[in-house]
Design goal:
Length: about 170
C-alpha cells in the first residue's frame, strides 16, 4: 500500500537540478518534468536552457546534459525527494557507481527559504555552489537567489572557463 504524502500548508518554490549522460537524456529530462508536473501537488515553473557539460568526478565518462527547473509544490521536502527518486527509477535510473554515468539524475537544490537537514536529504544541496553544471543553468532561472552568501549569478560567473556549452534542446513540459 502506497503511503500518503505529507503536504505543507502553503506552496513552496523549490529548484531541481537535472542531468544525465546515457541514452536520450533530453527525452528523459523532459519526461521527468512532465511526470512531476502531472502530480497534483506539483507545478513546473521556469526551466533553464540545457547545457552540454564536461564530466565531473573521478569516473571517466561522456559529457552530460544538465538543466535546472523551478517547481512549486505542496509536498514536504522528504516527500518531494521520494517523488524525485520514484521518477528517476521510472525513467530507468540505476544507481551503480557514485558520480558515474547515468540516464537521469535529479537533485533537489533548494526548497523554499529554510534549510533541510535529514539523514538522506540536505538542502541547500551541499555541493551546489562548487558545480558549474548546477550554478550556470540555475542562473538562467534564479540569478538573484543567494547561496552561500553570494547570488547564483555571481557563482555562475566563476564557472565561465569550465567549457559548458549551451544547446538548442528544449525540455519544458
Amino acid at each position: 500500500m502506497k503511503r500518503r504524502r505529507a503536504l505543507v500548508a502553503e506552496p513552496v518554490v523549490a529548484f531541481l537540478g537535472l542531468g544525465g549522460n546515457v541514452g536520450d537524456v533530453a527525452d528523459a529530462m523532459r519526461r521527468a518534468l512532465e511526470r512531476l508536473d502531472s502530480n497534483p501537488e506539483c507545478s513546473i515553473g521556469a526551466v533553464s536552457r540545457v547545457f552540454r557539460t564536461p564530466p565531473w568526478g573521478p569516473v571517466e565518462q561522456d559529457w552530460f546534459l544538465n538543466a535546472c527547473a523551478e517547481i512549486e509544490t505542496r509536498l514536504s521536502a522528504p516527500d518531494l525527494l521520494a517523488l524525485v527518486l520514484e521518477t528517476e527509477i521510472a525513467l530507468g535510473r540505476v544507481r551503480s557507481v557514485r558520480w558515474g554515468p547515468r540516464t537521469l539524475d535529479i537533485d533537489i537544490l533548494l526548497y523554499g527559504d529554510a534549510p533541510v537537514s535529514l539523514d538522506n536529504l540536505t538542502i541547500p544541496h551541499p555541493r551546489m555552489s562548487e558545480r558549474g553544471f548546477v550554478m550556470v543553468p540555475l542562473a538562467d532561472i534564479a540569478p538573484d537567489i543567494l547561496v552561500d552568501g553570494q547570488s547564483v549569478r555571481e557563482h555562475a560567473a566563476g564557472f565561465a572557463d569550465e567549457g559548458l556549452e549551451v544547446t538548442d534542446i528544449d525540455i519544458r513540459p
